[in-house]
What we know:
By secondary structure, this protein is mainly alpha-helical.
Amino acid sequence: MTPRFALCLMAALAFAGCHRKEITSLERKEAASYSSEADFAVTVKEWSRAEDLFAKAVKLCPDQGDTWLNLAVVRMRMHNPSGARDAYKGALSAYEDDMDRNPSNTMSVLRRAYVLVILGRADEARSVAAKSLAKHPDDRTLKAFVESGGVDKMAADPRLKELTP
């Protein structure tokens, strides 16, 4: 085997693993089941059980921003700020991907802004909301959020401190 051929073969194998794995319907159902069970664990304040279940759910479906957000909140309840920060970053990524796939989904914009505020990046949250409003000026929910100072209201919420890593 020539060195050039070996190098090309290694590059082809490396790039073959770079694409995103498609999430199957079965994986989505399994992740939803884990999330549902984790929600119950949260209601009975079994934080470690909830964390484990949410972690399994995001491993199966990393595109679910709400599950990442729930995982982050549970980790904060468990006094694990570094784990929570990682989960918040996962939520940001999932919401951003959802905004790219479905630009008219206002909830992804608002939730992304919320996570940015939690992470202390209120200016970036304002920018995300304003840019989205510029792209969708007829979106009444987004317009009301921006015009009423939604980011500032989020940042002023005293409960936010409990969620901040």
